[in-house]
Amino acid sequence: MSATASPRRRILIIDDNPSIHQDFRKILSAVEGSTSLDSLETAIFGAPQSRAGGAYSFEVDSAAQGEEGVQLVEDASREGRPYALAFVDIRMPPGIDGVETTARLWKADEDLQVVLCSAYADYSWEEVAQRLGINQRLLILRKPFDNIEVRQMAHALAQKWDLSRQSRRREEELAQAVTERTRELQATNARLRQEMEDRAKLEARLAQSHRREALGRLAAGMANEISSPLGFVSTNLNHLRLALEKQTGGSPLEDPAELLDACREAIEGMERLKRIVQDVKLFARVGPQPGVAVNPRKVLDDSLARAEPNLGPRIQRVLELREAPDVLASEEALAHVFLNLIVNAAQSFPESHPEPRIRVSLSAQGPDVSVEIQDNGSGIEAEHLEHIFEPFYTTKPGGSGLGLSICHSIVTGFSGDISVDSTPGKGTTFRVRLPRAA
Ligand SMILES: Nc1ncnc2c1ncn2[C@@H]1O[C@H](COP(=O)(O)OP(=O)(O)O)[C@@H](O)[C@H]1O
Ligand SMILES: [Mg+2]
Prior knowledge:
By secondary structure, the protein is an alpha/beta fold. The chain has helices at 18-28, 36-45, 48-54, 66-78, 98-108, 125-132, 147-248, 256-285, 296-311, 331-346, 382-385, 403-413; strands at 8-14, 57-63, 85-89, 113-118, 138-142, 292-294, 316-321, 327-329, 357-365, 368-375, 417-423, 427-435. The two termini are 64 Å apart. The longest helix has 102 residues, at 147-248. The chain is built from 12 helices and 12 strands. Among the domains are: 8-145, Response regulator (Rossmann fold, 3-Layer(aba) Sandwich), CATH 3.40.50.2300; 287-438, Heat Shock Protein 90 (2-Layer Sandwich). The strands form 3 sheets. A 5-stranded parallel sheet has the order 2-1-3-4-5, sandwiched between helices. A 5-stranded mixed sheet has the order 7-9-10-12-11.
């Protein structure tokens, strides 16, 4: 706003005496810069360029009665051209008095600044305050009034009216901004929740398809694995049958030692088949499961006890079992995992190992529980390391190669994970992480 374009504010005079209307009009409509009032005003409100925001020109309306004034204020408000200020006479017979008028004015427009004018001590300030409430929009002016005082009041109250409207607008804007921001945050929240749900669904579908893939590989591996023991079982059995047929045909029996060997081989083949079938059964049973709260310490103790025959007296056990919360799993499946890892560790020591040692540790780590099974055995060569979780991958003569793939299925089925760290010649550490039960 430029220094010359002073803002125009509306003032309403409510007084039963028409000559007072004229007085106010004269005082408030004085041409700027043309009277001594202006130099005084400049002294009060500052130099012209700073007056831009502080000085006003006024449009003055008048009413002779309180009701008429209230009507004007209501109309002005409705039309969006509100009054900034009203000078209200206290006594206005025969109508309502100035205090009552003021109360009604504020009902019509809560921003309106009011100056109550009185020639008499009609009301004490306390009485007025009591009727209207302690109020910052109210001043009292004694008649006969001083022109400068009136003009000064008009400017000060017009500015106050501006400021209070500005601050209210600002508050409304802030409240609006807060509402919008809250709405945005809620929308973002909802979106995030939806994304998380979608992700969980996707992960479940992915786990399902991984499992189908693993089962497919398992079936293929199983056909492959089974064909060789089946082959020599049937060769040996045929051999035995032929020998027995010869004997029942009257020919002398072949070397019994050789027949016994054939028998043993067939039985060994059957044993291998049995082991494979057992592991496959277990593999086929595991899969994503809801899980219950399981005490990992108890399961570890259990698995260690069950592994005793595989450990023997020579292997040193180091147990670091700290307090840990329950995990979401199944006791039986988890025991199977730990037992497998301990037995693998026990099988990692060459005969000649001077100091075979297995360390088992349990600890809580953030939202998870971690179990480590570490050995100082042979370690795993890089070329094997990348395959050890595949079904039927084994480096052991007579091994099924299903142990780790079953462990992997079980642990991931309970939303955990299993990882390995190994240095050939130094040893291996398997780490199982499971989410704690809520
Ligand atoms: N603690 C370990 N130390 C060295 N090698 C290991 C260890 N655990 C597993 N392995 C390797 O991983 C392979 C796969 O193990 P697993 O699935 O349990 O089948 P299996 O024990 O029948 O061979 C093993 O043949 C071995 O080569
Ligand atoms: Mg094994």
